[in-house]
Write a structure and sequence with these properties.
The chain is built from four helices and 14 strands. It is mainly β and 353 residues long. It has a 14-stranded antiparallel β-barrel with strand order 1-2-3-4-5-6-7-8-9-10-11-12-13-14. β8 and β9 form a beta hairpin. The chain is globular, with a radius of gyration of 21 Å.
Length: 353
């Protein structure tokens, strides 16, 4: 085994190993969402990623939006790039992400960013129902990312997050870490990534005496493959690698293996596996324009209405290069009752001077 490959494996063990141990106990085998604080950390702002199903960790083509999803995709080609994202979410909620990247010849590549969500303004009332004023609700994450190439194929990276929330008189602060490793072979146009997200803790709880709540920890594995002689790139991501059971069932809620026919057990295992899959495809006829489409099976499974599933779980979008700016739009269908629109703007600040 080469020294460089040993470095990559050591990085995976040090960064991802403790996280797997911390989340391997039965007490933390929860559903995909709803049992953690700061779930906004999982919201994608990028129009491109949103249009590809909402999650992607393997697209390696110099897009600074990808740093948010996998810090190991940060490289020298993103030097001095600025990215601005805005999302018109559900129920008048707005959120976004802004980031600036730079490269240092000896220390590696860096990026600084802020991820925020604004829930709007609310009326405040006392116990009798009398209006006493108004208050706001907001959450923020300040991100500092770093990445470096191990060799011509492997890159490692990490993001440190300082997270804060303010809900009327209640607030909380904490820290989290993302870490990833990426393998990219330009000869085969294949990119493979493994990422750990949101390993951390609350440093201060919501109020005095309150218990600290877990963060939305997740392990993800993904790959992207661009065709050599056709303008298509395909991506597949396996989400929640740390927990196979995303259906929310517990040992006491399901039939024992002996009570189930073999065909039923295989069907349940197949359905459970598919809930982890996020798939996307990009059509890239020219370098300055692309059309994207994606599908998130877990989102469709959790949010559809059986009587009329419609296009819940599907997404689409496009990106267009206009002079010095890359403009992106993504549309995601969460439920029959609503969808979200994502807007992205990327530019190289060096092109202005």
């Amino acid at each position: 085994m080469s020294i460089k490959l040993r470095h990559v494996l050591l990085y995976i063990f040090v960064c991802l190993g403790p996280a797997s141990l911390m989340h391997s106990g039965p007490m933390l085998q929860a559903q995909a969402g709803g049992g953690n604080t700061w779930e906004f950390l999982n919201l994608t702002s990028s129009a491109r990623v949103a249009s590809l199903g909402g999650k992607n960790i393997s697209l390696r083509d110099g897009d600074p939006n990808m740093i948010f999803h996998n810090p190991s995709l940060l490289d020298s080609t993103m030097h001095n790039h600025l990215v601005l994202n805005y999302v018109n979410y559900l129920a008048d909620i707005n959120y976004g992400y802004a980031s600036w990247a730079f490269h240092h010849r000896r220390l590696g590549s860096f990026a600084a960013g802020i991820h925020y969500i604004d829930y709007g303004s609310f009326l405040a009332a006392d116990h009798t129902g009398s209006i006493t004023g108004s208050f706001t609700a907001r959450e923020n994450s300040f991100n500092l990312s770093w990445a470096t190439a191990i060799d011509s194929l492997f890159t490692i990276g990490a993001t440190v997050k300082a997270i804060g929330s303010s809900f009327e008189q209640y607030g909380s602060f904490g820290m989290a870490l993302d870490a990833g490793v990426n393998y990219y072979n330009p000869a085969s146009l294949l990119s493979v990534s493994l990422v750990m997200k949101n390993l951390g803790t609350q440093l201060t709880s919501w109020y005095a005496g309150a218990e600290k709540e877990p963060l939305p920890f997740e392990l993800q594995f993904g790959l992207s493959k661009q065709l050599s002689h056709a303008p298509f790139r395909f991506s597949v991501l396996y989400q929640h690698l740390q927990d196979f059971n995303l259906d929310g069932k517990r040992a006491g809620d399901i039939e024992s293996p002996g009570d189930q026919p073999f065909s039923r057990k295989m069907e349940e295992m197949g359905n459970e596996f598919l809930r982890h899959i996020v798939a996307g495809v990009e059509f890239i006829p020219v370098r300055t324009f692309s059309v994207n489409a994606g599908y998130n099976n877990l989102r469709r499974h959790e949010l559809k209405i059986d009587e009329m599933a419609s296009t819940v779980g599907f997404s689409w979008g496009f990106s267009l290069q206009v002079t010095m700016f890359r403009i992106g739009f993504g549309r995601t269908r969460y439920h029959l009752a609503g969808s979200s629109s994502h807007f992205s703007l990327t530019t190289n600040l060096a092109s202005f001077y």
